[in-house]
Amino acid sequence: MTKNEKIKKLVPEPSIRRMPAYLAYAEGLLRKKQMYVSSTQIASYMSIDSTQVTKDLSYTSIVGKTRVGYEVSALVKVLSEFLGFTVMDDAFLVGAGSLGSALLHDSGLNNFGLKIVAAFDVNHKTIGKKINDVEVFHIDQFRDLAQDMNVQMGILTVPAENSQTVADLMVAWGIKAIWNFTPARIKVPDDIIVQNTTLYSNLALLFNKLHNEE
Amino acid sequence: MTKNEKIKKLVPEPSIRRMPAYLAYAEGLLRKKQMYVSSTQIASYMSIDSTQVTKDLSYTSIVGKTRVGYEVSALVKVLSEFLGFTVMDDAFLVGAGSLGSALLHDSGLNNFGLKIVAAFDVNHKTIGKKINDVEVFHIDQFRDLAQDMNVQMGILTVPAENSQTVADLMVAWGIKAIWNFTPARIKVPDDIIVQNTTLYSNLALLFNKLHNEE
DNA sequence: CAGTGTGAAGTTGTTCACAGCA
DNA sequence: TGCTGTGAACAACTTCACACTG
């Protein structure tokens, strides 16, 4: 059904998912002034197999020293570049509720290459306010700002019922990628990238493990 | 390395991840008073293969009617039971910062079987306050409350640097499962369940798709 | 030896093909 | 014909095995 003709699938998705954790670990080691780290160390920290780590790292440009491991500072540099955390992407956030403001407050996003330049809502209580220095506009102002700012990414933190409506607006206004935090799936044209991120999948997994315990 | 001797792996993890989305969709149809839904409909909504949907649903107890599909109300019931969303689990939340308060505000968690009964922090500005009717205590009070309340789950929303310290506390205080929202991985005894949920993995995936576009 | 790096084997998850049904 | 349900074929990911290096 979903034909992916492109041979673009060089790096397995699970590998990309693991890499930010490697990066976080390496950054910690860097602060502690550790010079080298081996795949075995990383693997033990992540509770996974060590060959998994070497395989994952082999997709990047880094080369390790035999018997010594990978240079920590190089690892940080290579991983953050590989993951696209070094180039700043601007984003709009729609839905300045509790989850939306949590994202606005999260400095980690800033460090990892995502800058939220404006927020939108329909609630007049929040419109006009600033959350962590980001101004909240009425959603009708989206169009004007989008043209001025040439923003590629939209963050969707509205209630599930409104997700499709807002997604349609984002597409109409020229957004290229949507980070969807609602449990609902949105329909968009093929060339628009969607990343679904829902808490409840993780909750389901957790419950599943918890209940299947003896 | 990780020997899983148990044959407990009946349901594939990806299936469990998809199910909450099926549930959300079915709940929407229920509100619209649609009686039946076919796997093809669900598949088109999710942009996946329809056999995937039937396979996933075959792990639950539901049986579909030929040519008609699955009864929507039954689907909602079966899925929410299967996912453990019908039994209420109590949880403590540690780290009442922006992400922590977002979770406290999220009524979806309540609907899906998770009740946060108390929150903890070290910041004296928030201690003593109530966030969405949940009181915030100083972390030192954790022990007393844990004994009283017999809570099984701990939600970890502290800064990454403190994650291990707080995780150790949770374990010492008898928590059985930890929902870890920090990018750091925590070390816990084998019998403790950990579910890692990090935004940055999703951000990495999104960037990867965005940058590999032509 | 303890580590990297990689092709081959094994496992898990997805898609295909088709039987059965109304 | 349009759908469920399932065993078989296929693809993706992980783990193993081993060559290589200081």
Please explain how this structure is put together:
Two copies of one chain form a homodimer. The first copy, chain A, has helices spanning 13-31, 39-46, 50-58, 72-82, 98-105, 107-111, 142-149, 163-172, 199-211; strands at residues 36-37, 70-71, 89-94, 114-121, 130-131, 134-138, 153-156, 177-180, 193-196. Chain A has 214 residues and is of the alpha/beta class. The first copy, chain A, has two domains: 3-82, Orthogonal Bundle (Arc Repressor Mutant, subunit A); 89-201, 3-Layer(aba) Sandwich (Rossmann fold). The first copy, chain A, has a seven-stranded mixed sheet. In chain A, strands 1-2 form a two-stranded antiparallel ribbon. In chain A, β5 and β6 (134-138) form a beta hairpin. In chain A, α1 (13-31) packs antiparallel against α4 and α2 (39-46) crosses α3 (50-58). The longest helix of chain A is centred in the first third of the chain and has 19 residues, at 13-31. The interface between A and B is large, with 69 and 69 residues. Chain A binds a DNA duplex (22 and 22 nucleotides) through residues 1, 9, 12-15, 38-40, 48-52, 54-55, 57-58, 63-70.
Key terms:
homodimer; 214 residues; alpha/beta; Arc Repressor Mutant, subunit A; Rossmann fold; 2 domains; 7-stranded mixed beta sheet; two-stranded antiparallel sheet; 9 helices; 9 strands; 43% helix; 17% strand; globular; disordered N terminus; DNA-binding
